[in-house]
Amino acid sequence: MYAGCTLFCADASEIINIVATAMKTGQHYTFLRDFIFTHPSMSEGLNELFDI
């Protein structure tokens, strides 16, 4: 199975490293959804993105 991520947003360079780490370690998307991110930061948007 292949996975990928494309980001087109402000501060994408901050977010992509977090997503890449989760993908390389085989984490489920809930890992990012439930993670506590520093506020304010662009990466905390991952909590909302995966809040399905």
Protein described:
There is one protein chain. The chain is an all-alpha fold. The protein has one domain. It is 46% helix and 0% strand. It has three helices and no strands. The chain has helices at 12-24, 29-34, 45-49. The N and C termini lie far apart (22 Å).
Order of helices and strands: HHH
Which spans of ≥5 residues are poorly predicted at pLDDT below 50?
none
Provide the number of structural domains.
1
The secondary structure category is mainly alpha
Q: Could you describe the largest sheet, including whether it forms a barrel?
A: none
User: Please, what is the average pLDDT?
Assistant: 83
What portion of residues belong to β-strands? under 5%
Report the end-to-end length measured between terminal Cα atoms.
22 Å
Shape: globular
What's the multimeric state? single chain
Structure summary, number of beta strands: 0
The value of Rg in angstroms is: 11 Å
Helix residue percentage: 40-55%
Query: How many helical elements?
Result: 3
Structure summary:
The chain is mainly alpha-helical. 46% of the residues lie in helices and 0% in strands.
Short descriptors:
52 residues, mainly alpha, single chain, globular, 0% strand
